[in-house]
Amino acid sequence: DSFYALMSPYKVKPYEGWIIRQGVLHAPGPYPTFEIQFAQDDAHLASWTMGTRITEAERKKYIDNFVMQGMKDGETWLQTVVQWDLCVATDFQQKYNHKINIIEEGEWGRRYQIFFEEFYGEGIEVKPNQKTIRRSTAQPYAGIVWSGRGKINENKIDCREKDCKEFLVVPNTDVYISNSSQTYILYIY
Length: 189
Hints:
Structural class: alpha+beta
Largest sheet: 6 strands, antiparallel
Strand content: 25-35%
Number of helices: 4
Order of helices and strands: EHHHHEEEEEEEEEEE
Distance between the termini: 33 Å
C-alpha cells in the first residue's frame, strides 16, 4: 500500500477515457473499467500472482523467469519497468484524460467516442423500444453487448446469452440496431 503515496489521485468520471502508457503505475478506482492493452504477457505485471495459490519454490521460479528476467533486484526492476517521468508528470491529466465525444444523438439514444488514440472505440446507447442505424465505414469493427437485448441486422443480441453478446461488422456494412426492451437501455461498446 505504500505505493499509493507515490501516486496522484484523479477523479474518475463515467464516460471519460484515460490513456495509460506502458510503465505508468495506476489503480482504476471504484468504477468498472475497460482496460484495453497491446498484446502482452500478463506475468510482467507487478500484481500478476494476485489470488493464485502457488508454492514458495514455484513463486521464486516464476518471479525469476517471468518478472525479473535476469535483473538483479527489485530496485533495478522498478527503474526498468516503471516510467517515473510519466507517473509524476504535472500535466498528466491534461495530456491523457479524454472527455466523452458525442458523435450523434436523438430520440433513439446516442453514439459516442470513449476510447482514443491507438484504441479508438465507441459506445452506443439505444433507448427502450427504439432503433438506429450505424452507417457503414471502410473499417471493420467488433462490438460487445454490455447490457440489454435487441437485434442487429435482424440477428438477436442479448448480454445474458453467451452466443449473442459479441459481433463483428465487416467493412461497408450498415448496422441496424433495435432495442427490444420496454424498460432498459441497450448498451453496446
